[in-house]
Recover the amino acids of this structure.
């Protein structure tokens, strides 16, 4: 057994094809990006090597510091706001409930829609003049707010759709994991008289730990490098109040034309993600399961 | 039943898996085999380009009847757009087929936000097309410095020089060399909804005091006085821009923007103060910071805002069939500010968009000719389509169908004594980004006018 | 049995109300696609269009080269899903099950791809493609898409392979199956639900991707649907209703694909396989 699973040639054959594609198109570009982060370069003129200056400058950049803080807030909010509802839905849907197929489809719809659509929807909801939210407030005689224009409100307003949109995404991941648990185990538990919540906490959750880890990792890394929806909704504004590292990186590279400084933000994002990746690996150890 | 179907599906997947893995380490091959012809044609295109570098300068004159392909990139991405500039561009693209039969122009249009990303990446990767749309002044300066674009001096005949209107080349001229032809003069003016002014018994402002009176009156009536989409940042630049022009005068303000003079002058501090006060008294409504330019235009177009300070591209929107304000809009000069050095005949705007020729092009003469053709043709057509002022002298023919507002702007600007171009294009890159953020801070009341000017001054140091 | 009725009805109520919330964005898009700018900007934002402007669909479908864009999108997406799915299964099986020392490093190496902000690698990928003379071809987007789909697929599949019982392979090896056969004929069928899920994710990211497609492709003949639709955004004016119609057209295939694939997930593991 171990001999077969330790076969280096087989390992090579399994890994190599993916390795080549990934190495050329993803890994080398990261390394190049790392190299750019040590330069002062506008993308077209001369490259000036400045060592760690770009990183040092970032620590003095208020917009960058607040963008990091925002992304950490989002990571925590995503864990709570995405994974808990997603887990709940996945467990319920996997129990052969009436309408399983319909719910599973409908709950996933926000993930299927492109960022442009979700962005437009929430721009209309939040609009200060004619938005649905202010109209709703108006019903109760409350004063409307400039949701995306107020530096105190913008973060919550912008993060809400981001978190909400991907509930269905994590639901599908966890649902897939649960569906991988052999039905026989539930049958045996039922015979023993276990109720639904006992089964959820004593069978499902322990058995899909590795899938939960996947979901957790995706949620955290996804939050730390988030770009699309925040760009459509606020572009990081007003006054950097909803800035996240990726939006700042985008403006730095493509508007300010500072490739070096922008790449330094990219390197920071990768490093930050790696840190959380290792933390999750460490505190969420999963052993291979034997039934 | 179901299970066998599933098994088949999985079987299919597995057998494809086998094929892929049997093909060896050739994940790359599997992609290309399905698109062999595509690759060939692309290589065929790529090869002459790769040798282009050696050919720079050596002009290749085509023989008669020989077809030359010129690649052209622009931000005019939608052929069905009703925007005057887009209409004019696609007209030119059509007529060039008959007017320059030996040149085959291959156009690639990209939506404007993505266009900048695509262009800058291609530029950094040294893969520029022969001709490409670009903004002038500060945006263009780094390209000139890096030698990426070709000077037009060699190709500009006296006849062309005679037709190009004075001053329109300024933003494309570096060290006395001209790098691009102009195609329009876009001017910002104050758009006023005359119906709202009449209904609320407000006088259309001729002085800055009357302007403030109007602002207060509309504010009191629950109408947004000035529609401003500050979420997109650049609209705020225009508000500060015109105040600075009125306070400091076009010449002095240009000097500060070019780094030849300081921002720390009493006039510019006063301009900043006026902008801040205007925002504080509700001049831009309650929600300018969260409003996009699209929304700001829509609010004005639907008659929910009384005024808008915007570039002449707004003409088409105001006169569109679906606009509630059609026929009710008038354009006026932004009022003179008492105590300021600027006059009413100094304007915000100018000529700053062009088509540049890559210095790597294999056919410099033809590429320059294409750039010149498009600019001259667009100059007339975008004017007739109701966008900006023309930059080339031309017989405009019958102008009775011309957008009413375009004609009004033409009248307003006929005695223009000075222009300050859009601040973001003028400064470019990080300076433009800093300016936009500073002005957002100013409007939001986060810094004093003095701090604002001092922060701008750091750009000049 | 009786006392479980009320919670069940309550549960259904919760599920239905959440379904209504989740369904609304699609309804919103559909209404949006039948409006004009006046309604979209303030006149009538959320509700039914006052007048169904079907001409938006005409504009979206017939003015632009939508048919060709759609074919390109389907072709590119299919290749990416197929290749990345198979490659990811192979790698994740090796990492999750095989006992080779470098496993940990290989996993981190591929996981790194999850963490890259794509905008930062736009230029480096562009330069790689240029050096391989692949700019402005189908490969110019297909290969980067595969490369950036792999990390997520691998990471996800590892988690799934880890849940499979070891006894399965043991008995196969005892029967004299080679590792390749065991992988293809025993393990691969077992991870089918996970493969379906990851195909949905790969599909969505490939289908909706714009930045690579815009930057690496110049010729209209290779243009994908999402890019084609986004070109309707103007510098100063955009006909949002027509955009909405285009987005609606681009969304329908994603719903179909999701229905097909998620059904594969529902059926779960082939019953009895585990006890094998």
């Amino acid at each position: 057994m171990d001999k077969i699973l330790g076969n280096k040639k087989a390992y090579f054959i399994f890994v190599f094809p993916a390795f080549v594609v990934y190495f050329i198109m993803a890994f080398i570009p990261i390394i190049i990006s790392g190299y750019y982060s040590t330069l002062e370069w506008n993308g077209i003129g001369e490259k000036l090597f400045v060592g760690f200056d770009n990183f040092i400058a970032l620590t003095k950049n208020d917009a960058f510091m607040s963008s990091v803080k925002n992304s950490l807030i989002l990571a925590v909010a995503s864990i709570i706001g995405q994974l808990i509802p997603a887990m709940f839905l996945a467990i319920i849907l996997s129990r052969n409930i009436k309408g399983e197929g319909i719910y599973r489809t409908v709950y996933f719809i926000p993930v299927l829609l492109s960022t442009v659509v979700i962005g437009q929807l929430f721009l209309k909801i939040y609009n200060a003049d004619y938005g649905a939210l202010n109209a709703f407030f108006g019903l109760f005689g409350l004063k409307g707010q400039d949701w995306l224009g107020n530096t105190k409100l913008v973060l919550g307003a912008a993060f809400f759709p981001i978190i909400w949109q991907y509930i269905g995404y994590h639901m599908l991941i966890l649902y897939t994991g649960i569906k991988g648990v052999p039905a026989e185990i539930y049958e045996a538990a039922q015979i023993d008289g276990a109720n639904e919540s006992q089964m959820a906490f004593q069978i499902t959750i322990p058995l899909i730990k590795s899938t939960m880890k996947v979901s957790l990792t995706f949620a955290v890394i996804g939050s730390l490098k988030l770009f699309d929806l925040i760009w459509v909704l606020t572009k990081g504004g007003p006054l950097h109040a909803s800035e996240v590292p990726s939006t700042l990186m985008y403006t730095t590279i493509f508007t300010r034309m500072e490739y070096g400084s922008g790449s330094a933000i990219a390197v920071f994002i990768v490093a930050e993600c790696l840190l959380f990746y290792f933390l999750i690996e460490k505190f969420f150890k999963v052993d291979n399961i034997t039934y | 039943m179901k299970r066998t179907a599933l098994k088949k599906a999985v079987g299919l997947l597995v057998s494809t898996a086998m094929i892929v893995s049997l093909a060896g380490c050739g994940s790359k091959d599997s992609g290309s085999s399905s698109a062999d012809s595509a690759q060939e044609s692309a290589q065929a295109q790529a090869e002459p380009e790769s040798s282009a570098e050696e050919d720079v300068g050596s002009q290749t004159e085509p023989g008669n009847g020989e077809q030359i392909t010129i690649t052209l990139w622009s931000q005019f991405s939608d052929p069905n757009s009703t925007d005057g500039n887009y209409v004019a561009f696609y007209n030119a693209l059509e007529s060039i087929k008959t007017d320059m039969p030996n040149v085959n122009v291959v156009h690639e249009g990209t939506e404007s936000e993505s266009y900048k990303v695509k262009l800058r990446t291609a530029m950094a990767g040294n893969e520029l097309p022969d001709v490409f749309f670009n903004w002038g002044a500060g945006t263009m300066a780094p390209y000139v410095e890096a030698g990426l674009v070709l000077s037009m001096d060699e190709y500009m005949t006296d006849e062309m020089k005679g037709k190009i209107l004075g001053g329109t080349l300024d933003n494309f001229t570096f060290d006395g060399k001209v790098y691009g032809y102009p195609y329009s003069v876009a001017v910002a003016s104050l758009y006023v909804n005359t119906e709202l002014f009449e209904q609320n018994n407000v006088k259309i402002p001729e002085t800055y005091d009357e302007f403030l009176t109007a602002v207060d009156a509309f504010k009191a009536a629950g109408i947004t006085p000035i529609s401003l989409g500050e979420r997109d940042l650049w609209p705020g630049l225009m508000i500060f821009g015109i105040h600075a022009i009125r306070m400091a005068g076009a010449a002095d303000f240009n000097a500060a923007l070019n780094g030849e003079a300081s921002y720390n002058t009493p006039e510019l501090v006063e301009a900043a103060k006026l902008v801040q006060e205007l925002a504080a008294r509700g001049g831009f409504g309650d929600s300018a910071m969260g409003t996009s330019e699209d929304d700001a235009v829509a609010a004005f177009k639907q008659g929910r805002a009384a005024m808008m300070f915007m570039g002449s591209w707004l003409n088409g929107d105001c006169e569109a069939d679906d606009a509630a304000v059609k026929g009710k809009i008038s354009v006026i000069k932004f009022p003179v500010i008492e105590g300021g050095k600027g006059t009413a005949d100094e304007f915000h705007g100018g000529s700053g968009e062009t088509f540049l020729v890559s210095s790597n092009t294999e056919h410099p003469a033809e590429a320059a000719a294409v750039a010149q053709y498009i600019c001259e043709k667009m100059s007339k057509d975008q004017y007739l389509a109701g966008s900006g002022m023309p930059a080339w002298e031309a017989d405009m023919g019958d102008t009775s169908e011309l957008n009413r507002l375009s004609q009004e702007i033409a009248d307003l600007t006929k005695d223009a004594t000075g222009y300050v171009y859009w601040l973001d294009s003028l400064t470019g890159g990080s300076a433009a980004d800093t300016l936009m953020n500073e002005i957002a801070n100013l409007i939001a009341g986060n810094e004093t006018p003095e701090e604002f000017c001092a922060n701008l001054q750091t750009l000049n140091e | 049995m009786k006392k479980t009725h009320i919670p069940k009805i309550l549960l259904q109520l919760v599920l239905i109300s959440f379904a209504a919330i989740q369904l609304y964005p699609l309804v919103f898009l559909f209404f949006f696609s039948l409006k004009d700018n006046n309604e979209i900007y303030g006149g009538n934002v959320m509700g039914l269009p006052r007048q169904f402007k079907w001409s938006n669909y005409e504009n979206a479908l017939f003015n632009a080269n939508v048919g060709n864009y759609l074919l390109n999108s389907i072709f590119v997406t299919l290749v990416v899903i197929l290749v990345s799915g198979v490659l990811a299964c192979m790698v994740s099986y090796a990492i999750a099950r095989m006992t080779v020392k470098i496993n940990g490093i290989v996993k981190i190496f591929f996981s790194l791809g999850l963490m890259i902000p794509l905008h930062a690698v736009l230029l480096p990928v562009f330069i790689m493609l240029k050096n391989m003379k692949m700019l402005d071809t189908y490969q110019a987007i297909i290969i980067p898409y595969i490369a950036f789909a792999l990390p997520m697929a691998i990471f996800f599949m590892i988690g799934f392979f880890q849940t499979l019982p070891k006894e399965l392979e043991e008995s196969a090896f005892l029967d004299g199956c080679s590792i390749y056969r065991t992988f293809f004929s025993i393990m691969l069928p077992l991870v089918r639900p996970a493969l379906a899920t990851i195909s949905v994710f790969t599909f969505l990211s490939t289908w909706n991707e714009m930045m690579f497609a815009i930057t690496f492709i110049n010729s209209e003949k290779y243009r994908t649907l999402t890019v084609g639709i986004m070109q309707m955004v103007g510098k100063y004016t955009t006909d949002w209703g027509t955009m909405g119609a285009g987005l609606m057209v681009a969304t329908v295939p994603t719903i179909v694909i999701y229905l097909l694939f998620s059904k594969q997930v529902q059926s779960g593991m082939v019953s009895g396989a585990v006890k094998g």
